[in-house]
Amino acid sequence: MAVTFPLSLASFWEAINFANRPAFTTNQYQESSMDGGGNVLVAQYGQPKWTFSVKTVPQWHSHDIPAVALVNQLVARRGTFFAYDTRRPFPKNDPKGLVLAARTITIETKGANNRSIGLQGFTASFQLSVGDMLSVTDGAGKFQLLEVSENAIANGLGKTPVFEVQPFLATWIAVGQTVTLIKPPGKFRIVPATFTGDDGSGNMGGGFSFQALSVPA
To answer: Model-level pTM greater than 0.85?
Structure first.
């Protein structure tokens, strides 16, 4: 059976024995300069992308062999994998994902400013908090990982007001699309030349590391 991409959360991301909690941050692809009047000028050269670094714990060499084999596949074939921010796999106000487990959350409104959305499908008064993560999918293989930038409380109908997120919304995002807030996945690729293989001595390995970058859709 062929290896297919993106690799699922269970087959790769959740099988990693992390030495850290990879911090998901956005690379804004910005450069700055200064004009003759001392004003700082900022230019953006690409769409923001999520990025993080992974380091695994030292353990028996044999333990990491399956994970490293998958990394080798990802690097060699420029494959993709799903990942979520392990520091915040659930919303702040549903720390175990029990409230939202049986809910279907969808986009009710897409803001005209292209950086805000309104959601529906919550229990009444459920609050999304700054820093919560969510993932939007079109149901045909496209995903975008977003971070909540302001608190939003659902009304009695389970609908939130429009609230800001970052980064900017992808052009394909539309009303009615499904939103995941439990282990919200983004689609990532390993950055070339960042994989460092397992070292160590004797039967004990020192762990491996790599950096990853989100891919469009």
So the answer is: yes
